[in-house]
Amino acid sequence: MVRTRGVVVREVPGKFEVVDLDVEDPRPDEVQVELVASGMCHSDDHHVTGDIPPAMFPFALGHEGAGIVTKVGGPNRKGLREGDHVVLSAIPSCGNCRWCMTGRQNLCNLAAGILAGPRWTDGTFRLHEPDGTPVGQHCGISTFVETTTVSVDSCVKIDDDIPLEVACLVGCGVSTGWGSAVNAAGVRPGDTVVVMGIGGIGINAVQGARHCGAGQIIAVDPVEMKREKAQEFGATHAASSMEEATELAKQFTDGQGADATIVTVGVMRPEYVTQGLAATRKAGTCVVTAVGAVGEHAVQMNLHELTLAQKSLVGALFGATQSTWDIPRLLQLYRAGALKLDELVTRTYSLDDIAQGYRDMHDGKNIRGVIRYRS
Length: 375
Hints:
The protein folds into 2 domains: about 1-170 and about 340-370, Medium-chain alcohol dehydrogenases, catalytic domain (Quinone Oxidoreductase, Chain A, domain 1, Alpha-Beta Complex); about 175-315, Rossmann fold (3-Layer(aba) Sandwich). The protein has helices at about 40-50, 100, 165, 175-185, 200-210, 225-230, 240-250, 270-280, 305-310, 325-335, 355-360; strands spanning about 1-10, 15-25, 30-40, 60, 65-70, 85-90, 125-130, 135, 145-150, 155-160, 190-195, 215-220, 235-240, 260-265, 280-290, 310-315, 345-350, 370. The two termini are about 25 Å apart. By secondary structure, the chain is α/β, with parallel strands linked by helices. The chain is globular. The strands form 3 sheets. Strands 3, 5, 6, 9, 10, 17 and 18 form a 7-stranded mixed sheet that branches. Strands 13-12-11-14-15-16 form a 6-stranded parallel sheet, with helices on both faces. Strands 1-2-7-8-4 form a 5-stranded mixed β-barrel.
């Protein structure tokens, strides 16, 4: 057992609370990881506001992290050893279910338990408060905890020369945004792409569209700083509203509209689906990656247009990526200078400053905030 510190939420709506925690030693096919850095994804804020409430409280947050293995629970099927550098994937992959076996690791059956709290294998816990109260682990990893015990299903070993303070970002945000363009939208060379919402996900959808050779990439955000940043990452144009972006897309496509529209706003609303489909040409694709309140059900769309214009409306979880393949691949692109990671980090924070970091996110000051635990 190791005493550590981490961030929990105790109710919804709630707050980010930094507390002492006890971390159990790893069991078979588990490792203990000392975090170096964790990205501050909007999804964790959803669990605090109650948009997506966890199944139990207290619940330790964080799902986008990287660190160093400090202890192993004996032999494990991934061959991880002490000293290995790992990215912790927001979506675990068992490698054996129908989805993993057919190249869709992002839909692994283990993902059904990522908001439940206990370990999905046997219902036990690895985190406790000092008085013994069980603490749930977000995605089974809880990267807002200085030292965490995780399943090897959530670990992707990476090369030691990749800086962990930026490698953490591919555990969720980079993979989700990049994959939304590359995998879910299927962007092709010369396409016109609209990216709606330029935060930690949207900025990487821009990078993914650029990677695919899109001809025009229109970044949409009401915040000027984010529009400017998007153009540094490959956007060819920027707009402050979807109305403006839709008109731009039509200008580039002889009045047709975008080949792909990718919705990556911070908090999803039904009207954004309507706007995304309206911006998309016939036989085009509107990808919905953003999430909002679990109670949001009603979406108004023109069903006549959906059918006769043969548009596709597609949901994208984790960018339809495969963590064991795509995380190392993205880091190779970073090493080759073809993927920007360092530039994504607007500001770093200590664990104690996490609430300020999320205030900065809401105020439109950050593309991505990162918690740094050690150098």
